[in-house]
Amino acid sequence: MHNMRKHVSHSDSKELVISISKLHKSFGENHVLQGIDLELYKGENLVVLGRSGTGKSVLIKIIVGLLKPDRGTVKVFGKEVDKLDRKELMELRLKMGFLFQHSALYDSMTIRENLEFPLVRNKRNISTKEIDESVKDVLEAVGLSDTIDQLPSELSGGQQKRIGLARTLVMKPEIIFYDEPTAGLDPLTSSEINDLINQVQEKYKTSSIIITHDLTCAKDTGDRIFMMMNGKFVRHGDFEEVFDTSDETIRGFFDYNFIQ
């Protein structure tokens, strides 16, 4: 299945999960987001592509309510995020999962304990049996069932990234944010992670925003790709549509990044 990306949207229902309109955010004179519009549909992998420091992570922080927009609206599941109170925001965040560049597993805990931790912390009434089943299910989903009693230090970087994803999945999120999921990984491991992102989409029907400057990741995982430059989305569509252009800045980004 490697590198075969179905350029059909998984969002047949056209149910909106995230809706962003005319979003602006500045820090002093630094205008990071300058009128962003974005719609994420249920079951879709959406890639936000751009160089580092182009406001991609600011966008995510606004979506999850860590930063407030200067202007514009951000709705998740139909609710305006910056109008929610603390309790509503916490409930919303339980429906979201995150895979950051550094999977940040707890070194002193086994893989099993790492995966149990978010369940025990966030789901008060969950039985030991349910915890056990959930842990085994997500470990199987990321292909690492045999690591359950190991420590993170015994795993490779790519395996740790997979366990980080398993820990995200154990909470059954409806939306997953992947922040540079292939950063620091060799090409083979990167391609395994890309495949895994697609498998998660199929198995768990998640809606995802994948932030990356890795073109192979964008091409292999994205149903739609939004290209960000200077605080704006300059192009969007599938991979071919985004790069089918004579625009030098976009061609430059492509040529700079892409090593076939």
> Structural class, judged by helices and strands?
alpha/beta
Radius of gyration from CA coordinates: 18 Å
Lateral strand order in the biggest sheet: 6-7-8-3-9-10
End-to-end C-alpha gap: 17 Å
What would you give as the CATH superfamily? P-loop containing nucleotide triphosphate hydrolases
CATH architecture, please? 3-Layer(aba) Sandwich
* Count of distinct structural domains: 1
User: How many H/I helical runs?
Assistant: 9
Taken as a percent bin, the fraction of beta residues is 15-25%
Short summary:
With about 260 residues, the protein is of the alpha/beta class.
Structure notes:
- This protein has 260 residues and is of the alpha/beta class.
- It has a single domain (16-257), classed as Rossmann fold, CATH 3.40.50.
- 37% of the residues lie in helices and 25% in strands.
- The protein is built from nine helices and ten strands.
- The protein has helices at 56-63, 86-93, 111-122, 128-141, 157-169, 187-204, 215-221, 239-243, 248-257; strands spanning 16-27, 30-41, 45-49, 71-76, 79-80, 96-99, 175-179, 207-212, 224-229, 232-237.
- Strands 6-7-8-3-9-10 form a six-stranded mixed beta sheet, with helices on both faces. A four-stranded antiparallel beta sheet has the order 2-1-4-5, covered by helices on one side.
- The model is unreliable at 1-11 (pLDDT under 50).
Structure keywords:
disordered N terminus; Rossmann fold; 37% helix; 260 residues; globular
